[in-house]
Design brief:
The chain has 443 residues and is an alpha/beta fold. It folds into 3 domains: 107 residues, Rossmann fold, CATH 3.40.50; 167 residues, P-loop containing nucleotide triphosphate hydrolases (Rossmann fold, 3-Layer(aba) Sandwich), CATH 3.40.50; 114 residues, Orthogonal Bundle (Helicase, Ruva Protein, domain 3). 47% of the residues lie in helices and 14% in strands. The chain contains 19 helices and 14 strands. The protein has a 5-stranded parallel sheet, with helices on both faces. The protein has a 5-stranded parallel sheet with strand order 7-8-11-6-12. It is elongated. It starts with a strand and ends with a helix.
Length: 443
């Protein structure tokens, strides 16, 4: 049930507010002193505080209300507080609103205005709790994954990466081909490592070959090996990647760059588990778990005649798609902290710059930006300037007007702490609340 704590030394004030709130099915908790109010906050779940500014008879300075407000902010940074003021403390109340108080009401208050403010704040409080609940549930699920599987130290916070990691773990034990798709730098090789680490061949080697980095005339030798004299410069026999990965896993990265001739031979190996070294007629067997990855549109390549359809279906029994970093922005802050290590802190302006950047280079670009910043700021706090991100990522005022996605990411990154999220977005706490209300952000 929605709950409001009223802290006021006047019993009639608390009674009047209790009746008013009961008409809206809002529970009222009572406290007559500052200490009583803090004790209630420590023991019970409260959504909103309404506090008087003076508690001692014949006192009108408002100092007691200021001290109580500061104490509440220290202990409960995101607790919304409405101040009830007399004329003498009105100026102080206005200053406290600028310092983070939700609103102020002069006595005697207007019931309609008070209720409109209370309802809005309770709605935002529920949104904050929903964010916190969603984060706790996600942490529980991820912890369960870590307890059940070897996640190879992967760092993530987004639902999209959670789904990809869970899929990798689930298909690892099945001896089926896996195709990992996504843009360059998104983490496809790490997903392949998770598949290997949880597979029946995890005791074998994990071998990777970037098909786009090998000249077309050498790809067969790289895949299957070559005998001495098989081609110019082959002065001795060499093992291919299939041979190295026997009883292990072979990742064929950027499979879309594999030449058609190599595609034909790869298909044959996948179907027969037999291959021949270049320059040899002797068949060799390979017990290899094959995983492929690509940033290319393979169906489009099939239509263009540059990728074999039969090979595509042989490789693509299970597809794991990794979205670009700008579609899983919850991962930005946790990845940045991971790359940053323990010797540095990430300033709020730097976090805001990271969240507003588009990351066309994905996780690889983020890692490079953080490593560069660590060099520029050997100790202490990383600032936005240390990241050296393109100026287009921020408007001339120094901060970009946050959209829904940026606000949700900031809230998630801050663990539901609205004050921390507001700092990261270069907003006041109340400005962030207003944007949350306007955008209808609840989770």
């Amino acid at each position: 049930m929605r709950t409001v704590l009223v802290i006021d030394d006047t019993l009639a004030v608390i009674d009047a507010l209790s009746v008013l709130f009961s008409l809206r099915e809002i529970r009222t908790l009572r406290a007559h002193t500052q200490d009583e109010g803090l004790a209630v906050l420590a023991k019970q779940e409260v959504d909103l505080v309404i506090s008087d500014m003076n508690f001692t008879a014949d006192t009108t300075s408002g100092d007691e209300g200021v001290a109580l407000f500061k104490r509440i902010r220290e202990l409960h940074p995101d607790m919304p507080v409405i101040l009830l003021t007399g004329w003498a403390s009105l100026e102080i109340a206005v200053r406290l609103v600028k310092a983070g108080a939700a609103d102020y009401m002069a006595k005697p208050w207007n019931d309609d205005r008070l209720m409109a403010t209370v309802e809005n704040l309770l709605e935002l409080s529920e949104a904050t709790r929903e964010v916190a609940r969603a984060q706790r549930e996600r942490r529980r699920r991820v912890e369960d994954l870590r307890n059940r599987y070897d996640l190879q130290g992967i760092v993530f916070a987004s639902d999209a990466m959670e789904r990809a990691v869970e899929m990798a773990c689930r298909v690892a034990r099945a001896d089926v081909p896996v195709l990992i798709t996504g843009p360059n730098g998104a983490g496809k090789e790490r997903i392949a490592q998770i598949v290997h680490a949880n597979s029946s061949v995890r005791g074998g080697q994990f071998v990777a070959l970037n098909c786009g980095a090998v000249p077309p005339d050498l790809i067969e030798a790289e895949l299957f090996g070559a005998e001495a004299g098989a081609f110019t410069g082959a002065t001795r026999a060499r093992e291919g990647r299939f041979e190295l990965a026997d009883n292990g896993t072979l990742l064929l990265d950027e499979i879309g760059n594999l030449p058609l001739a190599g595609q034909v031979k790869l298909l044959r190996v996948l179907e027969t588990k037999q291959y021949q070294r270049l320059g040899s007629s002797r068949s060799r067997s390979a017990n290899v778990r094959v995983i492929s990855s690509t940033n290319a549109d393979l169906p489009q390549m099939i239509a263009a005649g540059t990728f074999r359809e039969d090979l595509y279906y042989r490789l693509n029994l299970i597809e794991i798609r990794l979205p670009p970093l700008n579609e899983r922005r919850e991962d930005i802050a946790v990845l940045a902290a991971h790359f940053l290590g323990t010797d540095h802190l990430l300033g709020d302006d730097a976090l805001a710059a990271l969240l507003s950047h588009g990351w066309p280079g994905n996780v690889r670009e983020l890692r490079n930006a953080i490593e560069r910043a660590r060099l520029l700021a050997p100790q202490g706090t990383i600032r936005a300037a240390d990241l050296n991100l393109p100026p287009a990522a921020r408007v001339s005022s120094g901060a970009e007007e946050p959209d829904r996605n940026m606000i949700e990411v900031a809230l998630h990154t801050a663990g539901g702490n609205v004050s921390r999220a507001a700092q990261a977005l270069a907003l006041s706490r109340q400005a962030l609340y207003r944007r949350m209300e306007r955008l209808g952000i609840r989770t």
